[in-house]
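Recap from last week: sequence in, structure out.
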Amino acid sequence: MYQKILITTDGSAVSKHTACAGVKFAQQMGAEVLVLFVAPEYQYPVYVEIIPPSYPIEEEYVETMQRTGSDHTAPILRSAQQAGVKHAAMTAFANSAALKIVQVAEEESCDLIFMGSHGRSGWGQLLLGSVTNKVLSHTQKPVLVHRLIQEPGA
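Predicted structure tokens:
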């Protein structure tokens, strides 16, 4: 039914549990997975006339976020490898994670987007799920929203 599943992660414990559930789902479907981490785009300081020396340059920021993306996707890739699921990962940059998820799903010809009902976001529980809601409203692809019954470690 599904050949290629896009699994999203933001690096949180909830997201990692959801992603591993996505890998199990892909294994059952006989599908491959593409694990996606979306990092915010580089922001220049706008309220200062001189950039502080401690502020990272764009290249340093990109390298750091690529490493962060690799760190966040590595356990999911290990899970896919152990399950015998064909896998790949990517880190993308965008100010809107939801729109980037939709774009990557289109560009990479994914049949399904697998994501959690909650992840990690600025104001905790108030905004948790906002990325999922935005993906649901901006894509025509099927989205499987995974919901944890209890927090990891609970």
